Amino acid sequence: MLRKNRLTLAVSTAMGLSAVAFAPQMAFAQEPEQVEEVIVTGSRIARPDLESASPVSVVTREEIKVTGLTDVGDLIQSMPSMSGSPIGTTTNNGGNGSVQIDLRGMGPNRTLTLINGQRLVDGGDYQTIPSAMIERVDILKDGASAVYGADAVAGVVNIITRKNFDGVEVELQTADWFDTKAGKQDTVSLVAGKTFDRGHVIFGGEFVTQEEAFQDDTPWDFFETSYYIYPEGCESNPARPYDGTPNGGCYPLGSSRIPEGRLGFASQGVYMNEGAGLVPYDGRTYNYSPVNYIQTPYDRTNFFVDGEFEVNDYVTAFTEVRVNLRKSAQELAPLPYDGRPGQDPAYTGTYVDADGVTQAFSGVSQDNYYLQQFATAAGLTPEPVTDIRRRMVETNRRFEQDITQVQAVMGLKGSFKEIDWELTYNRGRRSRTDNDYGQFAGTPLFNALGPSADLDGDGTPECYTDVNDPSTLIAGCVPLNLFGGANTVTQDQLDYVSTDLTDHYTTDLETLDFNVSGSAFELPGGDFGWAAGIGYIGEKYKYAPDSGKSQDAVTGNTGAGTEGSLYNMNLYAEIYAPLFDNGEQALSMTAGVRYDDYNAFDEETTWQLGIEANALADLKFRATAGTVFRAPTLSDLYGGLVDDFPTYVDPCTATPLPAGCARPGVQTDSQVPAKAGGNENLTPETGDTMTFGVVWTPQLFGGDLSLTVDYWDTQIEDGISSLGVQFILDDCYLNQNQQACDLVTRRPDYSVQQVIDTQLNVAEQGANGIDTEARYTIDTDLGQFRGTFLWSHLNERTKKAYAGAEEQDLSGRYTDPTAEDGGAYAEDKINYSLSWMWNGLTVSYLGEYISELDADTFCNCDSDGDPSNNKADGSYIQDVDAVLYHDLVANYTFDFGLGITAGVTNITDEEPPYIEIGFNATTDPSTYRLFGRGYYLRLTQTF
């Protein structure tokens, strides 16, 4: 039937509209060709055409290569259909070396990542997927729980690997920046394969090394200092010298943990040491920005093997093996030591105040040798330091990951009496060891900040439990000098209090699936197709933190470990019913249902219905509706309480004082210590999805046009989230809810010491929008020209933090990325390209557009003129301008198999936007390009 053949060609073209919108170096067929039945991502039924009721985009291998990106996760995250701010290798504070994606901005854990239809043990870390093995990437932009089960809420990314490859391919690539002083990336890959009569084998390896870059390696001034928006309008050039006017820069903002020491004595005020002895603290802060990574380093090695062999005419054996080895690191500013109660370990004891009352304290003993020396020299009475904050610039704070991941898939497939069957076993293990450097241990800190004196008269103090009793000497202890100013802590002192911390993570995945499919009978539009299957999914996870962390006996983030398992038995069935087809008009229906039974909570049943209707040979309408769910992760269920540091505003700093506050609060930091953790009583998230779209594929002006427009809508209930520190504080002090107050601990000065905030089924969220994808190709005497255009418009991205809360619309906004659902939600994202191909030469111009954002801030600019006491209630909204990036790429392939590709990225040297609440470098590393104009060069040799 001519209609079906033409539409197959046209829709396959439309599906090829990747978000990067780059032109593959291949020619389109000039005449329709009959195609074999294929499996399309989102269904297990083989069909005679590629179109489906659900919208699917395809990123081809050629499109991946033309970007110059070897981190396929970064490429996918740049798609217009992606949103939010997932972590990547430009996420330093909060990163772990992995690369994640966020389809529709619904959260990375609501996008299911597969390789050849199989789940991954890492859950979607794109660092484990070498670009050298990828044939294409299918992005199903529709919920697919009825086929794939849990987590396919926003959609599915299915990595299809290379199969039929003959020969050897060697590829070398280097990428760097013109004005950023570091951050180079080099890639080497080798792929070899052989296709024979009864099967194929392909194997390969890829090694990628990425250089670190510090924030002060970049050409952007605001990367080198943190700023607070004051006054309003200063964000247009935040790094100008601050003068208190909108024409000047923004107010410089730093950390209260300073190298000079912020030393709060029990009754005599706060002091510091600039190098000449203790003087009153002058309010200075520490600029931590320049010494933070903005690009994290890694060495990544991936190996893969794929083989298939026909055992006989009825049975084929297949296997896939992938190995990932990675070393990565993050580096923050030196340790911000804080000896206040509820913060880092310190000496704890008692003292008698001026009123004769015995008070408990955490800090430095009044009998500490260095406190005695420096206090006396400054004319102070030696007494406990009860508030000590010091930046430990004598040592670095570094976090390293060492990951080994192995995943193997093996199975048998075949046909029996026109029924196709497949039995697949999938086993994966991920082992990760983290090492933290630059942290201090609790017991040595207690000893080193406790009583000390030079009782033996050798000029060097010793630690004692009682300085009046030499027999109480603490052997091996070295007193710690936090009073001498920057760079005065000696190596001996560091060696005594320092500790290297080691954490271990282990993840196991095991799946077993048996699927059958076929056709049952003839309908007016073709064969009635069906598929069914039964499966098992088993997951185990263990996080064993260093004993110092689990006992809360060290500096830095501490907390308990996690261990648990989750098992699932599932059944599914789906049908494809071509109800009518006369060669011009056609109507078909799809339906699927799935049953999942878990060991940790009740079973779930999901369904999906779809309809496809052709009004004309080149005009098709399609729609789907269904239900989805996301199972709680093992960390959601069994995670122990661990440290978290979200941003907050203490309600008790408001005027007038809320009724629930005992007295005015004290807030000196924008982040509050919190404890987050799991909840064994969680249940799965549930939701509904719907899409409606049109596919138009006419021949226009002598060329082929394909155009798809799809409306989509996803809504989630019972969302797994936490109430949030701000809600808990407001609920306690504004609403006087005692249950909320029980989660809050305050220090003696009435500053917030800690808030408990664990996971609950409390949230609702949703999103809807319109995707437009277009491609036009025309052949001329001057070569082939091809244009592409992808546009995603986000109508709404709604959020209810808890039942009964006011619904927020995050579309067009940038919210605190450390909070639940925080990040960037641009209303419009567009990628487009124009390519010219002629005699082995391809030249492409590429564009990427991100619309403006309204960014939340910490600022209330109706102040008294003193930015140091502004109330950070976020009443001022920052305008983040739209960004348009331009890239230019050229490739030439010689007859002897050598291909040379060169590209210049961000030609106009667009700088990333300054965003005050951006957690890393006061911008959004997941959305914007950070390093200005760059280039890459790739050589590919095939044999």
TrEMBL record:
<dbReference type="InterPro" id="IPR000531">
    <property type="entry name" value="Beta-barrel_TonB"/>
</dbReference>
<dbReference type="InterPro" id="IPR036942">
    <property type="entry name" value="Beta-barrel_TonB_sf"/>
</dbReference>
<keyword id="KW-0732">Signal</keyword>
<keyword id="KW-0813">Transport</keyword>
<dbReference type="InterPro" id="IPR012910">
    <property type="entry name" value="Plug_dom"/>
</dbReference>
<keyword id="KW-0812">Transmembrane</keyword>
<keyword id="KW-0798">TonB box</keyword>
<feature type="domain" description="TonB-dependent receptor-like beta-barrel">
    <location>
        <begin position="370"/>
        <end position="907"/>
    </location>
</feature>
<dbReference type="GO" id="GO:0009279">
    <property type="term" value="C:cell outer membrane"/>
</dbReference>
<feature type="domain" description="TonB-dependent receptor plug">
    <location>
        <begin position="51"/>
        <end position="156"/>
    </location>
</feature>
<dbReference type="InterPro" id="IPR039426">
    <property type="entry name" value="TonB-dep_rcpt-like"/>
</dbReference>
<dbReference type="Pfam" id="PF00593">
    <property type="entry name" value="TonB_dep_Rec_b-barrel"/>
</dbReference>
<comment type="similarity">
    <text>Belongs to the TonB-dependent receptor family.</text>
</comment>
<protein>
    <submittedName>
        <fullName>TonB-dependent receptor</fullName>
    </submittedName>
</protein>
<keyword id="KW-0998">Cell outer membrane</keyword>
<dbReference type="InterPro" id="IPR037066">
    <property type="entry name" value="Plug_dom_sf"/>
</dbReference>
<keyword id="KW-0472">Membrane</keyword>
<keyword id="KW-1134">Transmembrane beta strand</keyword>
<dbReference type="Pfam" id="PF07715">
    <property type="entry name" value="Plug"/>
</dbReference>
<keyword id="KW-0675">Receptor</keyword>
<feature type="signal peptide">
    <location>
        <begin position="1"/>
        <end position="23"/>
    </location>
</feature>
<feature type="region of interest" description="Disordered">
    <location>
        <begin position="664"/>
        <end position="686"/>
    </location>
</feature>
